[in-house]
Structure formats: C-alpha cells, structure tokens
Records
---
Amino acid sequence: MSIADNLAQVRANLAAAGRAAGRDPASVALVAVSKTWPASDVAEAAEAGQRVFGENKVQELLAKAPEAPAGLEWHLIGHLQSNKVRKVLPACALIHSVDSVDLARQISRVAGELGRLVRVLLQVNVASDEAKFGFPVAVVRREFAALAALPNLEIRGFMTVPPYDEDVERTRPHFAALRHLRDELEREHGHALPELSMGMSHDFRVAIEEGATMVRVGSSIFGRRG
Ligand SMILES: *Cc1c(COP(=O)(O)O)cnc(C)c1O
C-alpha cells in the first residue's frame, strides 16, 4: 500500500466515523503525523492532497518543513521546552501541546516580540497518567482565566494523549472527559474553545464519536515506525 492509498483509506474511515456519529465529516481535520518519516514521504502525502502535518519534536519539524513542499501547515504536537519557543514559532501554525503556565507565558512573550498572535491548544492529562505531559485537570481549571488573559496567545481548545489501550472503549471515557472539560470552561469563561485534538491511528473512531475536531494520525498513513 502506498501513502496515497493509506491516506484514502484513513479519509474514508474518518468520514464513516463522522457520519456514524451524526457529524459532518468536514468538521474533523486530519493531521498527518510524519514524525520519523522523511520529507519525501511528506511530499508523497501532499501530492495526495494532505495539507496539515504534525511533528512531535521541534528539531525534526525545523529540519523537515523546509525540505517538504511549500504551502503546507505544520503543527507541533509534542512537548515544547521554553528555550525552543523562539525557534519554532515562525515554523508552525498551531501548537497542540501547551502543557504549563510558564510555557504559555513564554509563548505569549515571544509572540509579542514577533508581532504575532499564536494559536494554541492546551494539552490536558485527563487520565492522570504519570508518563504523559499535560496540565492536570485541576490545574487547567484553576489557571484557565490567567491563560486566557495572555495577550498574544489564542487558546483554541484542548488536546489529550490518553494511555494506550488496545480496547478503545477503555479510552473513550478520557475523550469524553476532555469534551466535558471543554464544555465547562467554555460556559464558565464565555471563551470559544472549538477545537478538540484527540484520537490517533488506533482510536480515532471513538475520538470522533466523542467530539474530536482534529485527529492526529501517523502509522496508518506512513507505516509502522521502526
Ligand atoms: C505519534 C503521535 C501520534 C500519531 O500516532 P499513530 O499511532 O502513529 O497514529 C499522535 N499524537 C501524538 C502526540 C504523537 O506523538
């Protein structure tokens, strides 16, 4: 199977999941996660119509994006260290992985210096998994007003990476929890939070059923990582 074939299959599955959930399939964006794969694979996916790509490491994003076709949109989906904010901001359209108040402050500060407004998602550790990055739910509740007040940051919604479970029904409650948290904070703060970035290759169907607006799919498109 070629990357184009895989993409067509993922798009079909995504649309089917959307329809089954009574949602407009166009309301779910596909972020093609190209980590560990070369720019030539990105070019192949772009040739097949894919526009949005996700990387989880700053260095890899910065190295790959200039080698890939122009006109693509790059998202950072992995942990970002404060000292790399300045380098990555010009290269990426959305940061999914803002996971601390300090990092949010640093992004807003640097964005201000660059004269930009930076779109971000807050990563939330809904499953309280010690191995994962993300705001604890209690912290995001407590700090939301302060985060939303940062001048050069536009919080668009939330992202989560639940612990891997072969049984996607055990992952479903984590996706639902993120949606409930979003609904709660949207209501409480009167702040539009339209985006929910959740779901990967093996569990995007249930993520879409639970309201995902962005799914981050790597191995189903590019193949198993070595
Ligand atoms: C690698 C990665 C993905 C994609 O995972 P697949 O199982 O390959 O689809 C999604 N989100 C994040 C944060 C990742 O690091």
---
Amino acid sequence: MSETLSRPVTDLAIFGGAPAFPEPIHVGRPNLGDRARLLERVNDVLDRRWLTNNGRYVQEFEEVIASAAGVKHCIATCNGEIALEIAIRALGLKGEVIVPSFTFVATAHSLQWQEITPVFADIDPDTHLIDPASIERLITPRTTGIIGVHLWGQICDVGALEDIAERHHLQLLFDAAHALGCGDGERMAGGFGAAEVFSFHATKVVNSLEGGAVVTNSDALSTKIRLMKNFGFLGFDHVGYVGTNGKMNEFSAAMGLTSMESMGAFVDHNRQNHARYRRDLGGLAGVTVLGFPDGVPQNFQYVVAEVDGSCGISRDELLDVLWADNILARRYFYPGCHRMQPYRSYFPNAGLLLPHTERVSARILVLPTGETLAPDDVSRVCDVLRCAIEHGPEVSARLNASSLRRHRDVFAR
Ligand SMILES: *Cc1c(COP(=O)(O)O)cnc(C)c1O
C-alpha cells in the first residue's frame, strides 16, 4: 500500500495509464455455484417434462428458503417485484403506503403499479435504514401500511416500526431483497412483520436467474398469496379469486437450489472481500466503508463506501476514475426514488423532507465483490481509490479542465 503514496496520477487509466483491470469488473456479477449440479437438475427437469406450475424443484426451493429464513411459509415467484406486488395486494394495502426513498425503485413501483401512492420517508444517516420518526410525520387518514427495506442486509428497527404500525392500525411489510441470510442476532430476515419479500435476481447473493419469494408465518396470508400467484385457481377449471401469473419455473428453481447449496461459500468469500476493503481503505481520510456489527448474520453482498468530500474529489469524479480503470462501481440508490419519475413530478418538493436521503445518496459508491473477485483484486481496486483520493484536488482539477467526465449529477437535470 505504501508504494501507492508515490504513485503519480498519470498511473490512473483516466489520465492515460494502463487500466487496473483488463476487463470490466461489475457490481452484482452473478455467483454461479456448482455448474455440474445445476446441469444435472436441468436435465432432470427436461426428462420429467414438468417445466413449471408448482414442480418438484420449486417445492424443494420453497422448503429450503423457509427453513433458512426460519419462517413457516414460502411462496416462490418469478421475481421480487411481482412478489412485492402480490404481498401488497394480499395485505389489502391501498391509498398511501410509507416507504423509504433510498431503495431500489422496485419498492416504490410495486405500489404505484397498482395505483397505491408511495409516500417517501427519510433514513437514518448512519445505517441508511428507514427512520421511524420520519414515518410518524407522514401518516395520514389514507395511510394503510409501511414497507421497511432491510437495506444492505441490515435489519430495520423492527420494534419501532411494529409499534407505529400497531398504534396506527397499519400493515407492516418488509422488502428483504438484500437480506437473505441476514438477521438481527435473534431472528433472521423473513419472520418480521406480516410478510417479507426476497429477490433471487441474478445480481443477488443467491440467485435463481430471475426469482423472488414471499415468506410469512400466517397460514391465511400464505393461502391467499398462493392463489394470487396462480391466476386464482382453486382447482381445475375453478377460479375463486383475481390473480396474476407470478409462478417460478423449474429451471429457476434448479438454479436457486444449486445457488443455495453454495450460499455459505459465497458469503465467506464476500466476507473476506469486505474485510479486505475495510483493511485497505482504513485510515484513508474522506472515504468510509460501511461496517456491520460482529456476531450478527450478514451476507456481505454489498460493499458500501461513503465519500464525504473532505478529500477534494467528489463521489462522481471518483466514479469516473474507477470506470476508466474498468472498475464499474455504482451509485446505489442515487438519486433516491423521489427524484425519479413519476414520483419526481408527483412530489416535486419531496426532497425538502428527505435531507438524509439527499445527502447520503450523493455520497455512496457501491464497490464490486462476489464469487468472481478475489481479495487481491479488491486490493487493486483500493489502490486506484487510494491514488485518486490522496491526489484528490489534483485529480479533480484535471478532470474538470478536460472532457473526461462521464457520470454527472442528475439533480440539476
Ligand atoms: C433487487 C431488488 C428488488 C427487486 O427484485 P427483482 O427480483 O429484481 O424484481 C426489490 N427491492 C430491492 C431493494 C432490490 O434490491
């Protein structure tokens, strides 16, 4: 690391140096697991000609997920967004539902898609999780529920959210898309609120290509959701409910099961990468990698760096430097849902009520990790960051005197 102290800025690819990586490295490059085992299952699906509609592997996958999350029921779906939409409908949400703005846009869209208004709450600036005090201020007679998001695999302040939900007679749902295998030290994500939703999208720690699930301890809710994800069919030719097609297919379940078998290895690998980021960037003024409490289950699928501006180079300038070196870091979840359409038009002044969301979303860089990135690769990412940050003012001045900028602030647009 010390040799980088003397590394000139001209070593950075954006100023003509050789890129740190010959090929782009991505945030969320899929973890694959045991290919032979996957192909065995795929062949078995083909041999049995049972491709979808509650097949053997979907049932097995549902059992594995329910058991990992310590919850009674799991209903697998074709993706996480549809799982959210179905859970929202099954819980009878309407009118307004309070959600954080600092989340993937699917959380808000799953409401708006069924003409329920997402009302955006602010976050705790340290954990980035929805702030219970902000929720209280947004409750109106039209509010029917709260969706908490276990962002970066950290568990929401469930006690405070349950208390608010109870006092105001609101339903409580969790978007646990980041939180498979995460817990608060007592319980695992999956068992909180009326229901929780997982995503098994290709970029998540465990993936089923596309996929999702609703998990719940409620028998009645589980029955309803099972009907809703299969057109409301009660039996052959017998529809008892309005439903949609939210079914997971057998290839997805085969991938999901195979991925679950390697989850321990994926998490171990991510844990090592996370520790390497923390070690290599520790003591570097201006950037902090979000840590997780010891002894609390965590999947380490996100490496979240906060750039505080004290190093003379902005987050977006750092991003340009990294991209030139083939390090495709991401600005999750910039600029916040309230700055995206259609919400931006509906609530043009929402930002005034969301000071922490505005500040945090302008400072976050999510860095690459996962099965395909070795800890020594992480050190190379950190070398680039260290060089750019140690020469922050010089890098910033050079970038702004040239036309090398790629990532721009979208706030002004
Ligand atoms: C990935 C994700 C989703 C959506 O999941 P899909 O399976 O891609 O539909 C929802 N919420 C959050 C917070 C996510 O990160």
---
Amino acid sequence: MDLSAIADNWRTLAALSAPAECAAVVKANAYGLGIDKVAPALWRVGARTFFVAHLKEAQQLRGLLPDATIYALNGLLPGTAGLFAASDIRPVLGSAPEIGEWSDYCRDNSVSLPAAIHVDTGMHRLGIALEEAARLSETYRMLGFTPSLIMSHLACADTPGHVLTARQRLVFADVVQRFPRVKASLANSAGTLMGREFRFDLVRPGIFLYGGVAITGVPPLRPVVRLEAKVIQVSTAPAGETVGYGATERLSRDSRLATVHIGYADGFFRAAGSTDARKGAEAVLAGRRCPLVGRISMDLATLDITDLAPDAVMRGDTAVFLGEGITVDELAQKAGTIGYEVLTALGGRYLRRYIGG
Ligand SMILES: *Cc1c(COP(=O)(O)O)cnc(C)c1O
C-alpha cells in the first residue's frame, strides 16, 4: 500500500478543486486499504474533513484524528445520537425521523450540534425528498441543531454524459439556494472531475484517491496497491489435460504451470478464473504477463508459465496480481465487477506492507 501515492492523489484533487474544500471518503476501512494508516496520511497532507459510512468507523477514526471533522454517511440509527455527540461525529441526516431525533437530542441537552442534511436529488437511496427539503429550508433555523452541510449524491457520475447527472446537478443547485450560508457538497470522485459546477463548497472523493477509475475512460491517478502472491509449486502437464476444479480449462499444448498462494478466500474473486470459453485474470511473473488457467480455488490459483524461459520461475518466486501495469480496474473487469469491490475485498490473510506517506 503506497501511502505517498494516496497523499499525492489527494493533493492533485485538492489543487483541482480549490477553492472548494477537498474532503476524503475513508469508509469501509479506507476502501479496504487500512484506515489506521490512510487517514493519518491524508491528514498530514492537509485533509481536514472525512466521511465514513458507520458510527463504528467514525469512532475508530476519531481515535486516529482527534481534530478532524467527521461525517457518518449512513446517518443515525435510533438511539445513537448520544454516541455521535460523545465522539463529536456529525451524522448525515437522510430522513425526517433522523432529523427529528438529532433535533430532540440537541434540545434535550441544550446544545446545537452540527449535522449534514442529505437531499435526494434522484438516486432514491438515501436523503429527504425535495418537498421536505423545501419545507425544512423555511424552518431549519428553529431546529435544535446546526446544519453544517447540505449534500446529495450522484447516481451515474461514472458514465460520461448521463442525463441523470445533469438533472441532479440542476436540482441540487436549486436546493442549495434555499440554505444560504450552509456549505454544499454534491461530488464524489467522478463529480469532482466533471467541472467546477459540480464541486460546490466541498468535494467527497473516495475511489480516485485509491488509484481506481472514477469515470469510464478517464485514466486513474497513481496506483496505490501492489498485490503479490508466492509461487508454491512449478509443474508440467501435457496437452489435453485440464487444470483445477471442474476441469473448466483444457490445455491446448504441453504446459508449464505455477501454482500460487492466492484464492477466493483472500478476496481474489473466483469470477476472475479462466475457462475454455473465457480468459481470466493475469499476473506478472519474471517480468511477463502470465494468464490464470482454470478456476480459482479457496487458497490457490494456477498460472500458465509455458511462454517463460524454462528456469524463469522457481518455487518461492513472486507473482504480481496488481501492479506492474495491472490495474485495480483491469482485475475488476476480469471478475465482472468494479475497482471498488476489488479493493474492499482485499482479504485479511495478506501481509500488508505500507510504504511512504
Ligand atoms: C462512497 C461515497 C462517496 C465517494 O465516492 P467515490 O466514487 O469513491 O469517489 C461520496 N459520497 C457518498 C455519499 C458516498 O457514499
């Protein structure tokens, strides 16, 4: 995990976004990379506002960054307002009951605590409806709490030119006008890249910080993760034989194989395996791309090293599954998923080494 790359990627987005503030989304253990290392590295380069999903994540982050502004995107579950207040965590309030509960808590305790308000501009996942937002804009000064951020979330920002993105921006710009002096935030990574009119006062990038693709066709920033696995056996098999569970791939030539220490229990998706009908993921061994052959097992996967020199690969050598030009998004595509899922699935058995930062 290259913390310098994350720091550089944040600086790039912060420079692009100014004068809007560049926050950092570190939910799900900083997209699987390790919030305990990633969040302090981001703080050191200047990030001051952080978003996580859950209260638990926010409490952990508070322990790491005592002075950060922390928002919990998934908002308040019933009865948790006191826990948010105790750790100075700002809930992102996405429904009338949540707004009511935070308000009541503040009134009962004679404090006016900050919170974000999430307005649904068309994604229909979280957030108060537009009519509710309009009503709230007339009454929020009487509420017990202090709205510190009006936010919404883009549903299709990864797809260039999607009509919903343009519509959400217009709707959000209208909502924001009703809350003068409250900061506004609409953009995830993709939104941040789409231009000033999407950035408002604060941007909330996640995936782009971690070396993933944010918008289809727009190259990622610096890669962050290098994923390696050791070769535990080198063997040969004649043409016509099959490799792995289910015998899904038949060898078309006499082959040399390298079986490596990685499997779906490590979050290395089974869907990235190889069959006769569909080629799977690749790894770099001895400086060359080698294709997976056959299915990925729980703890093992097999690479075809026939095209390498006979003594190029030895037991104990390292195969690179991410890095050396293999991106998170390439691997994701081979597994029929997205870079976000490749990162957040990185398993607990890997030895994690952090460099830089
Ligand atoms: C996850 C998330 C983000 C960050 O999205 P990326 O696409 O990773 O940049 C921003 N805002 C909200 C509400 C999110 O849930």
---
Amino acid sequence: MGLKIYFLSCIGLILFPIACKCKVYYSERLPFDLRCSNYLSKELKHEINSYRDIVQHIMEQMQSAPLKDVLYDEYTKFIDKFGARPSGSKVLEESIDYMVNLTIKYGTDTEEVIEVKTEELEVPHWVRGEESVKMIRPRLKNIAVIGLGSSVPTPKEGIEAELIVVRSFHDLEQLPKNDVKGKIVLFDREYTDYEENVKYRIRGASKAARKGAVATLIKSITPFSLYTTHTGEQDYKKSVVNIPAGAITIEDSLLLRRLFDRGEKVILKIGMQSTYDTKISRNTIIDLKGVLYPEKKVIVSGHIDSVDVGEGAMDDGGGMFISWFVPVGLKLLRLVSKRTVRSILWTAEEPGLIGAAAYLKRHIQELDNITFIMESDEGTFNPRGLDVAGSNGARCMIAQILKLFRPIDTLTENDEPGSDITLFTRKGVPGASLLNDNERYFWYHHSRADTLSVQNKDDVVKCAAFWAAVSYVISDLSVDIPRD
Ligand SMILES: *[C@@H]1O[C@H](CO)[C@@H](O)[C@H](O)[C@H]1NC(C)=O
Ligand SMILES: *[C@@H]1O[C@H](CO)[C@@H](O)[C@H](O)[C@H]1NC(C)=O
Ligand SMILES: [Zn+2]
C-alpha cells in the first residue's frame, strides 16, 4: 500500500547560469478589464461558481486544527533542523531525503494516490570561505562584506587597491579606462526595484573587469538596512577576466561614496576565499494522481535550496512548504481531482534555475500535458491573488476562479511571473506566481536575517489554503486552462 518511490538517475549537464531572479511586483490592484465575455461561456462561469462550497471547505479546513498545525509545525521543524540549504551541499541532500520521508509519513495512510520520486541532475557547489574588507585610507575601518555566489577568490594575501565609486553602468562607461585600471569598483546604485538593481549584482564584475578593475563591490540590494549584507548569484561573461565580487551594506556604501565624492583617496583591502565544483542534487516530485486525466498536471512549486546564509525560511522555505502541502493537504482532506496535482520542490534555483532547467529538458515532450504551473518564491506573507502568464482566455478563466476567493482575488498580468516557472511560461505554458503582501521581502532576502522570525503563522497557513484550493479547482474543472 501507499507510496512508490522511484529514484531516477540521470546526470543532466545543464549549467548555463541564468540570473537568480526572484522578481517582486508591488502591484496595485489593477482593474482586470479584458473583455472576458468573449472567453467565458455562461456554462463555464456556472461551472466555476459551482466550486464555491468546496473552496470554502478547503480554505476553512486548512486554516483550522489539525491541518494548520501540521503544516506550520512541520515547516518550522524543517527550517530549524536544516537551516541554510545551499546548492551542492550535503545538508541540501539531507533536507531532500527528509521531505521525501515526510511525504511518505503523511501520504501512506490510505489508498495509493500519492507518489514521490526524485530526479537527479548536476548542480554548482560554491563554498564561501573567509571574507573581509578593510578600509585602509583615509581611516581604518572594517567593512562588512558578503561574497556573491560563484565569485572567484582573491589571492591569499588579498587585494589592496584604490576605490572608485560609480552609481551606474553608464557612469562606468563614461570613465577613461585609465581611471578604472587596477582599482576596485563600487557600484553604489540607489535602490529602485529588484529587477533593475540585480543587474549590478549579476553583471557588475564582468563590466568592471572589462575596464580593467581588479575587484568589485555592490551596495546590497535592499530598500532597508540595519547593517545587513545581501548575497546572491553573479555571472561572469566569457572572455573577460573573472574578478572577485562582493556586496557591502547600504551604510558602508554610502560612507564610501561620500568619502570618494569629497575627493578623498580611498584604499581598501579585500580578502575573499571560496571554492567551486559540482555535485549531484535532485528535484523532488510529489503526485496526487488525478482520477480522470492522470497524465494532465497542475504543477505547484517552490525551491528547496537556499543561499548559504540565513535559514532560507522565507526564500524559499515558505513557498516550498506550502507547495509541498498542496497534494499532501488535499490528500488528507480526501480530495482527489480529475487531473494530477504535482508538487515540485526545485533544487538549485539560487545558482540560476538549474533544477527547473533540468526538469524542462527531461520533460520537454510533456509540456502540453501541463495544464497550469504555479510557483511561490516571492514570500508567503498575507496572500493577495495571482500574477498570471497566459492568453487572455487563460487570464479570464483564472480571474473568474479568483472571484471564489474574495478578498484574495487580485490578478496581475505578467509574461514571466516567478523565477523557476518562467522557463515554462516562456514556452507557452500558462502559469502564475503567488501575489502576497511582500513589501518587506527584500529587507531579508539573501541575508542572515532570512529566518523564521520573518514569518507569521496565520499568513503562511492562509497562503497554503489558497494555494491548495486554487490548485484543486484548476485540476478538477471539466476544461483545461486555454492556450493561444
Ligand atoms: C528517511 O527514511 C529512511 C528510511 O526510513 C531513513 O533511513 C533515513 O535516515 C531518513 N532520512 C532522513 C533525512 O530523515
Ligand atoms: C500526454 O500524456 C499522455 C499520457 O502519458 C501521452 O500519451 C501524451 O503523448 C502526452 N501528450 C503531450 C502532448 O505531452
Ligand atoms: Zn527564491
């Protein structure tokens, strides 16, 4: 009885580093004014509305004992037990085994409906060593620093060089090469939004190296700081010298800029150690089999890996856990739908969507059988609705479904919602990312402050309830979410 576990093995050599992007849209409630009458028949509206009671049932059950406590207790136990789960680490693999075991624990009580398996792939394994930045001139000061993922180390003795501070790539381009050569470049870009600022994290080192710089620092990507440093993946361009790259606090970045702007000669000494190789990791796939169309899948997902600092409680422990709880929670409620509800715990999202890329490659023939793909990787604060990619017809259908969830009924439109699932939505698979009140997300993102203290039980549980109920409706409707 119970579960079948398959450990499939395959070494997918997919190592094209993509930007780790956890885009966040602070969308105002956009009026969804597409002419949906063209897309939604009376019958379909009627059918969607017939799910009102079951939606209410799922929302209520998931937000009361025992389910809410099962979810939150297991979530906090997981984070406390493993902490950070960086790509390629032993602790990440142990945490994957643990989630497989946990699925078996909650999935084997009745009929054979939940299956869990893992699929292997090769992932980057970058390990941070000792890191320090000292200001030598105009006065001595220790500057807190955090290396960026995949950064090369400095020589053992460190790099001591004069600092040059720029606000943008444009400013850097304007400088004569001789002004940059042999120096350390600090990108002190004012925070506007993650998408714009993250370009400096990802490409800063290569842009500066092209001008002859010997190391780069960026101002940490956050709108708010209590002297926190924020890491994340960076990506070297081919054919450019690889130079060390780190992030410093907003506070120190502003200090260095003020000194530089006053014409002070600023000298820094940077020491950053790290190692890099590759390891095997696994995506985890959990299926609650559909009774009518088992080959059709509604996928709900989050990533189990995290950066190496903090606890990965918010990014993406919360999103991963509520996604894990969709098939498991529905099963505990004895709710099986027409299509298969598949939860995927992606591995190695942080170094560049490596797990999702391997899954896409391996399952490329099955894209038409993905009815809808969802991801929670932008926080599990109070849920607001969905950020949706797809045709007008798809968005109209999702908008109609969201009406069952008032007030969690905001629909924003985005061709590339989320992070891992953008690989799928770009290929025409309709999908959505969880909208939530994540205005403070980047305060904690990729920093030592990403701990369970960021999370609120009622909010996480409400996200889980919404996530499960939406998945249930989409996987049970008589028609698929339409494509173009
Ligand atoms: C998972 O379960 C297996 C079999 O019971 C056990 O050997 C293993 O130690 C468990 N792993 C974790 C990480 O809990
Ligand atoms: C969908 O799944 C079924 C059953 O596995 C398979 O026969 C079919 O080829 C798949 N279709 C597509 C387009 O993926
Ligand atoms: Zn993430």
